[in-house]
Specification:
Elements lengths: L5 E3 L8 H16 L7 E4 L1 H9 L6 H18 L12 E7 L9 E5 L3 H11 L2 H19 L4 H15 L9 H19 L7 H15 L3 H10 L7 E7 L10 E6 L11 E6 L3 H6 L5 E2 L1 H6 L1 H18 L3 E8 L2 E9 L4 H13 L5 H5 L8 H4 L2 E2 L1 H6 L4 E2 L1 E4 L2 E7 L2 H9 L4 E5 L7 H6 L2 E4 L7 H9 L2 E4 L5 E3 L4 E4 L2 E3 L4 E5 L4 E3 L5 E2 L5 H13 L3 E5 L3 H9 L5 E5 L1 H4 L5 H9 L3 H26 L4 E4 L13 H11 L3 H11 L11 H6 L1 H22 L5 E5 L5 H22 L6 E6 L2 H5 L1 H5 L4 E4 L1 H9 L6 H10 L16 H15 L4 E4 L7 H9 L4 E4 L4 H16 L1
Parallel strand pairs: 14-15, 15-16, 16-17, 24-25, 24-31, 25-26, 26-27, 27-28, 28-29, 29-30, 30-31
Antiparallel strand pairs: 1-2, 2-5, 3-4, 3-5, 6-7, 6-9, 7-8, 9-10, 11-23, 12-22, 13-17, 14-21, 18-19, 19-20, 21-22
Helix pairs in contact: 4-5, 5-7, 6-7, 13-20, 20-36, 21-24, 23-24, 24-28, 25-26, 28-29, 35-36
The structure holds phosphoenolpyruvate and magnesium ion.
The site of phosphoenolpyruvate has 10 residues, from strand 25 and helix 32.
Length: 875
């Protein structure tokens, strides 16, 4: 049988999400549930992939299938596509497997032309409505399908309103709109050199093609990379009969959630507008009414509406986000999906659904995205400072959290300044999908226009970024880059602080703090810990970080990078002295100065861990990193050490590396200067004995040797470590368990892991270096060219952020198996950046590592990702 590329809604079902996309599958389900859905059909994701395979053309056989379905739709609706008497109009919308709000394109009112619009006017006895629909269609089709700038049309409508002395679009008359249609067609002809297409079939095929094309537009690509959505999924296209919310005062349109997406409360939540089309609600041009008002306006319809909302939530067993339209008093549901929600809402809904018996704990933990937890851990305003601050304005609390930064007026500016390490708040009149990268880079987002379902609000909530929307009190001049409120002008140099939980805006810098894990969050995380098998440790170099990580649920330290202690102000001089020393004796003298400081650091870290395990790595970076760079710093170092500046210059020259990452670093330092490893081992063991004796904590230090590539190299350094540790223990007269292991971060180590395991009691995969050395990409420079790789679809993801499972991952898997083959009880962990990335965590779970280790703020995320991996892989 030939492959089918187009399905009527009534032919599909809920299990066909991959093929029909989320929206398409849900429309089929709604049809089956008997919910009033305007009928239509779905062009599959496979058709999208075929479009790309065929060199971006839509094949004749798919066109034929679409036309056949169109005929069916005509039969069903009793209307005719392109008819001059009773025309059928449709919407064309994208619909990928997972929803990507605002990322791809939509065309409404398709099927209108110069004749059909007349027919519509007559048929509805409402020429205003007919011409309004037509001018919207011309604008959308021109913009989305034909790439004619939207602004050209918007200028015309603004001109017309000004000419007529009216404020709202709805105040324009049929005649005004008719005139606008002519102006719009002129714009089209001028821009495209041909008349606006009058053939509905052509309009349809062009529009379907445009949706396929939009799958690969730059903002969709960025969104996919951010949300881990593979390019190969493709998007489906839904063609659906239009129903009209702009047919007059008995018509309307709304966006509704079955629970509150901001805080998770079990209440219907949403907004609607009478005499409007969906885009008016989302675009935030007119301010919509809360859905509760509908009950007052039309109690009977409201009841029907509530029944459907409940039916859908019960069916999907999750909070639904629905679009509805009322056409001359009749209710339709245009789509439903699991609603995007803030992190606090996600937790509350998950816990509430379990407590009401609707879902299991396992199902609940799949309902919260690991990345979302981030927002709960990131700053809120520091209470004391907040009390002293006075808001300068208030907008809608669109996405919770707190943000403080200097003002950026364009997305591009936000992106650039954030890349330079500046904290910025993006302030815009309103946002559009083109702003996505700036929105990602900003600490928070502030808009003048738009409601709770405006683009800024929806996208910010999805990303977990703090957002205050629709603050009409402030004036933004995007051109001059100024923000004006209460008679005061703010520029790019001024700080503002915004509170996405209250909607308050402050014209000053307010300190932010990190909240604790309590309430629903704590309940939820307790389920997470019940379910997961993979342990989660943290990468922490200071007692403060260790303490923070323990509060976030870390089960020990997986990587303590000791070099970070070397940079501290009170010890860098001794470190430099050690590096510049000409012989072992001088080096040992300098090391003796460092020893007590390192010991004190380790004591504090062990105390923060209260007996939990700590993997401490011996010195890793190339030594030149510690030496001064500027002439001035060199001179002052020479003075401090009381030596000639030439000596410093010589040392800097001598330590210079051509390829620092592949240079004199890691265990190579211990091979050349064993006394460094000796000092560090002594500090580690002496500190452990001190806490054992004084605090009763039984710490088992895990001494980790970095950058091993050969077992004999490991053996050499290990012998130094063991000899020193034994000496310290006999000096102190105390026995202590300790382990010696290594990082696996060089491909050769992975390839010979069976031999290495004979000497190593544990492995910790350093996937940062392992990625660098497997790809041959410099960790420091890859960002320069990776964008070109994304654009050309050679790679879709940054391999330093998301583990390359097919390459680097295979080395990890192989080393795991080889390691266990010679040491069955070897402890296996990972401490590269990938330890905090959800899909990488799932991979580590699957290949059977014992733990992942990540930065403190990612610990809760990794715990959740580990639990999800357990649930998904049990299935
Ligand atoms: C690694 O290489 O993955 C690692 C954790 O070590 P570092 O990032 O310090 O090189
Ligand atoms: Mg490394």
């Amino acid at each position: 049988m030939e492959k089918k590329y187009v399905y009527l809604f009534k032919e599909g079902n809920g299990s066909m999400k991959n093929l029909l996309g989320g929206k398409g599958a849900n429309l089929s389900v709604m049809t089956q549930l008997g919910i009033p859905v305007p009928q239509g059909f779905t062009v599959t994701t496979e058709a999208c992939n075929k479009y790309y395979e065929d060199g971006k053309v839509i094949s004749a056989s798919i066109i034929e299938e679409i036309e056949k379905c169109m005929k069916e739709l005509e039969k069903e609706t009793g209307k005719e596509f392109g008819s001059t008497e009773n025309p059928l109009l449709v919407s064309v919308r994208s619909g990928a497997r997972v929803s990507m709000p605002g990322m791809m394109d939509t065309i409404l009112n398709l099927g209108l032309n110069d004749e059909a619009v007349e027919a519509m006017a007559k048929l509805t006895n409402n020429p205003r409505f007919a011409y309004d629909s037509y001018r919207r269609f011309i604008q959308m089709f021109s913009d989305v399908v034909m790439d004619v700038e939207k602004r050209l049309f918007e200028d015309k409508i603004d001109e017309m309103k000004e000419k007529r002395g009216v404020k709202d679009d709805t105040d324009l008359t049929a005649e005004d709109l008719k005139e606008l249609v002519n102006q719009y067609k002129e714009i089209y002809k001028k821009e495209k050199g041909e008349d606006f297409p009058q053939d509905p079939k052509l309009q349809l095929i062009e529009s379907v093609t445009a949706v396929f094309r939009s799958w690969d537009n730059p903002r969709a690509i960025v969104y996919r990379r951010l949300n881990d959505i593979p390019g190969e999924w493709g998007t489906a296209v839904n063609v659906q009969q239009m129903v009209f919310g702009n047919k007059g005062e008995t018509s309307g349109t709304g966006v509704v959630f079955s629970r509150n997406p901001a805080n998770g409360d079990n209440e219907i939540y949403g907004e609607y507008l009478m005499n409007a089309q969906g885009e008016d609600v989302v675009a935030g041009i007119r301010t919509p009414l809360p859905i509760s008002k509908l009950e007052e306006q039309n109690p009977e319809l409201y009841k029907e509406f509530i029944d459907i909302v409940n039916k859908l939530e019960n069916h999907y067993r999750d909070m639904q986000d629905m679009e509805m339209t009322i056409e001359e008093g009749k209710l339709y549901f245009l789509q439903t999906r699991n609603g995007k929600r803030t992190a606090p809402a996600a937790l509350k809904i998950a816990v509430d659904l379990v407590e009401s018996g609707m879902i299991t704990k396992e199902e609940a933990i799949l309902k919260v995205e690991p990345k979302q937890l981030d927002t709960l851990l990131h700053p809120a305003f520091y209470d004391e400072d907040l009390k002293k601050a006075t808001p300068i304005a208030k907008g809608l609390p669109a996405s919770p959290g707190a943000a403080c930064g200097k003002i950026a007026f364009t997305a591009e500016e936000a992106k650039e300044r954030a890349a330079n390490g500046e904290a910025v708040v993006l302030a815009r009149l309103e946002t559009s999908p083109e702003d996505i990268e700036g929105m990602i880079a900003a600490e928070g987002i502030l808009t003048v226009r738009g409601g709770m379902t405006s683009h800024a609000a929806v996208v910010a909530r999805g990303m977990g970024t703090c957002c205050v929307a629709g603050c009409g009190e402030i004036k933004i001049n995007e051109e001059n880059k100024t923000l004006e409120v209460g008679g005061k002008i703010y520029t790019s140099e001024d700080f503002i602080s915004i509170d996405g939980t209250t909607g308050n805006i402050y014209g000053e810098k307010i300190k932010t703090v990190t909240p604790e894990i309590t309430g629903h969050f704590a309940t939820f995380m307790s389920w997470v810990d019940e379910i997961r098998k993979l342990k989660v440790r943290t990468n922490a170099d200071t007692p403060r970080d260790a303490k923070q990580a323990v509060e976030f649920g870390a089960e020990g330290i997986g990587l303590c990078r000791t070099e970070h202690m070397f940079f501290a102000e009170d010890r860098i001089l001794a470190v430099r002295e050690m590096i510049i020393a000409k012989n072992e004796e001088d080096r040992r003298k300098a090391l003796d100065k460092i020893l007590p400081m390192q010991r004190a650091d380790f004591i504090a870290i062990y105390e923060a861990l209260k007996g939990m395990p700590a993997t401490i790595r011996l010195l890793d970076p190339p030594l030149h990193e510690f030496l001064p760079h500027s002439e001035e710093d060199k001179l002052s170092l020479a003075k401090e050490l009381n030596i000639d500046i030439e000596e410093i210059k010589n040392a800097v020259e001598e330590k210079h590396e051509f390829n620092p990452m592949m240079g004199h670093r890691g265990c190579r330092l211990a091979v050349t200067y064993p006394e460094i490893a000796e000092m560090q081992t002594r500090a580690i063991i002496e500190a452990a004995i001190a806490v054992k004796v004084e605090r009763g904590y039984d710490v088992v230090p895990e001494i980790m040797i970095p950058l091993i590539g050969e077992v004999k190299e490991l053996k050499f350094v290990k012998d130094i470590v063991v000899k020193t540790a034994e000496a310290v223990m006999s000096e102190k007269g105390t026995k202590l368990d300790y382990k010696v292991g290594t990082m696996i971060e060089i491909p050769r180590a992975a390839l010979t892991a069976d031999r290495i395991a004979e000497e190593a009691e544990f492995f910790s995969f350093g996937t940062n270096d392992l990625t660098q050395m497997t790809f041959g990409f410099s960790r420091d420079d890859a960002a320069k060219f990776l964008n070109a790789y994304y654009d050309r679809k050679i790679y879709e993801q940054d391999p330093f952020a998301k583990l390359d499972q097919n390459g680097v991952g295979q080395l990890v898997k192989m080393a795991t198996e080889k390691g266990r083959s010679t040491r069955s009880d070897i402890k296996l962990g990972i401490c590269g950046e990938h330890g905090g990335d959800p899909s990488s965590v799932e991979f580590f779970h699957k290949i059977g590592l014992d733990y992942v280790s990540c930065s403190p703020f990612r610990v809760p995320l990794a715990r959740l990702a580990a639990a999800q991996a357990q649930v998904n892989n049990k299935r």
